[in-house]
Amino acid sequence: MNEKDMGVRKLFVSTHGCQMNVYDSERMAGQLCQDGTWQETSNPEDADFILLNTCHIREKAAEKVYSELGRYKPLKDARPDLLVGVAGCVAQAEGAEIVRRQPLVDVVVGPQAYHRLPALVARAARGETQLDTEFPDEDKFAHLARRSGRRRSPTAFLTVQEGCDKFCAFCVVPYTRGVEVSRPAARVLEEARELVADGVSEITFLGQNVNAYHGEGPDGSDWSLARLVRAAAAIDGLERIRFTTSHPRDMDDDLIAAFADTRKLMPYLHLPVQSGSDRVLRAMNRRHTAEQYRHVIARIREARPDVAISGDFIVGFPGETEADFQETLALCRDIGYAQAFSFRYSPRPGTPAAERRQVDPAEASDRLQRLQVLLTRQRQAYQATQVGHTFPVLVERRGRLPGQVAGRSPHMIPVHLMAPESALGQILPVRILGSEANSLSGVLPTVPGAGGNPPNMKWSLNGGGGIPSGAEPAPSGRAV
Ligand code: SAH
Ligand code: SF4
Ligand code: F3S
To answer: Each residue of 295-317: b (16+ CB within 10 Å) or e?
Structure first.
């Protein structure tokens, strides 16, 4: 009997979009695999169930789903018992339309119904197409399984809050993820402890508006994100804490203070602003001004002078003029971003801004290009300031070259260096020697006379001191 006859079926998960989708994919796979009926594979051709976890944030992201589904058509034609599922924000936004456009799909499941996936798959296997995009009352987190056991990476995501009540005029998230819900603090801390027991030393708390977190504390009171971060910092073995994504309006005093008083909270903050023009911010329904954003950043920098700031920008929002765009450039110059993500506005069905008069696409592309030139320069300038300094780097994985490993600095910049396998999972002091497009290169501290290498390590450096470049920059965790 082969494995299939014995009942173990193969699951292939393809994940797009933000970190929350990465977290959700792991939990969905954990739930299907926990009783041994399913086993994950990295090859879609081996799979009995192909599950796409999708993103709806921009048109390009949503269209990717259909091109990927098209690629699975020959597999399904060859094996009609192959199941294909669509999860994530496209599933929530488009629902039955997905099956109409691509009839090979057997299961459509929205983000709030993931705990029902095993039942949906079982019914789909009997030949009934399944659609579940409800926002049920039960707590899906209580049902989604975490896979225990030693993890491949020392870093992990942990969703603490989901959904959004902000309704920015361009954004689909409040419709695809629903209203803001925070998980109880005790559950979050328990999951954090389990992750640490499995070898994780850095946890990133996730939420669409993570700093709006207000979960029930163990004592029944309302806990803020600052309180949650401080409680997590007390977990032995958890060395680094990060959180994303924050909204400028929810950056409260206590959370800013945590950057000063909580050593394990890393000096990096992703704080999207979208535009530097108050007129555009108002039209976007962001409910803050450019000045308020500058002020928040100044206060965070006061609390933690070395904090690296990251942001998101949208250019070509309906009504944006060249003068508005100049204000965005001016804001960037004032802040000085360590890294940033910028996008051309993409009209999304069902959002208010999609109905408005659009900016000429060529003009919007030109603005995006100009903004990206500035942001790239800022990133390079930021990275250049790190050269010559030594930072603790959490070594996350092997690099692309033999003998090379890669990790991140406290400021989230990818760093690659030559080090033995035993470095994986460790936080090591690394002296930064060079800066490339999206990463830094460094060496372990110099042992006198060893040219930057501890004596017991078997590799040679190019030209006595240079590090061969070419490590893939670690995934930024922001595929959107
Ligand atoms: N919850 C986060 C992230 C939302 S999506 C937040 O509030 O910041 C991530 C980024 O995608 C946004 O910050 C925004 O810059 C971009 N984005 C969202 N909708 C978009 C749209 N319709 N067109 C272009 N970019 C968009
Ligand atoms: Fe979207 Fe973020 Fe605005 Fe919420 S706060 S609507 S997730 S951009
Ligand atoms: Fe959804 Fe995340 Fe994309 S919330 S729309 S998958 S950015």
So the answer is: ebbeebbebbeebbbbbbbbbbb
- Residue 219 token pair: 């004592």
Cα 214–Cα 30–Cα 239 angle in degrees, nearest 5: 55
Residue nearest atom 3 of ligand 3, based on CA coordinates: 55
171 CA distance to ligand 2 centroid (A)? 6
User: CB-based contacts of 22: which residues, under 8 Å, 6+ apart?
Assistant: 15, 157, 477
Query: Helices (H) and strands (E) in the chain — how many of each?
Result: 15, 21
Instruction: Give kind and range of the element (H or E) at residue 225.
Output: helix 225-233
Cβ of 175 below 6 Å from ligand 2: no
Query: CA-CA distance, 429 to 427, in Å (whole number)?
Result: 7
pLDDT in tens, 2-55: 444 557 999 999 999 999 999 999 999 999 998 888 999 999 999 999 999 999
**For the residues 350-376, what does the mean pLDDT come to?**
97
Ligand 3, atom nearest to 90 Cα? 5
Q: Give the whole-angstrom CA distance, residue 348 versus residue 354.
A: 6
Give the tens place of pLDDT for each residue, 56-88. Answer: 999 999 999 999 999 999 999 999 999 999 999
The finding on whether 247 has its CB within 6 A of some atom of ligand 2 is: yes
Question: For 258, which DSSP code?
Answer: H
Residue ranges around ligand 3 (CB below 6 Å): 17-18, 20-21, 55-57, 88-89, 172-173, 176-177, 480
Ligand 1 center–CA 403 separation, angstroms: 38
- Atom 3 (ligand 2): residue with closest C-alpha? 168
| Closest ligand relative to 164 C-alpha | 2
- Structural contact between residues 217 and 227, judged by C-beta atoms closer than 8 angstroms: yes
Mutation pick for ligand 1 pocket among 168, 211, 313, 314 (CB with most ligand atoms within 8 Å): 314
- Half-sphere exposure of residue 412, counting CA atoms within 13 Å on the CB side? 27
Planar angle of CA 295, 297, 302, nearest 5 degrees = 95
DSSP string for 370-391 = HHHHHHHHHHHHHHHHHTT-EE
The model's pLDDT over 168-177, given as tens digits with 9 standing for 90+, comes to 999 999 999 9
Give the per-residue pLDDT at 137. 76
Q: Which ligand is nearest to the CA of 351?
A: 1
Q: State pTM to two decimals.
A: 0.91
Confidence of residue 448 (pLDDT cuts 50, 70, 90): low
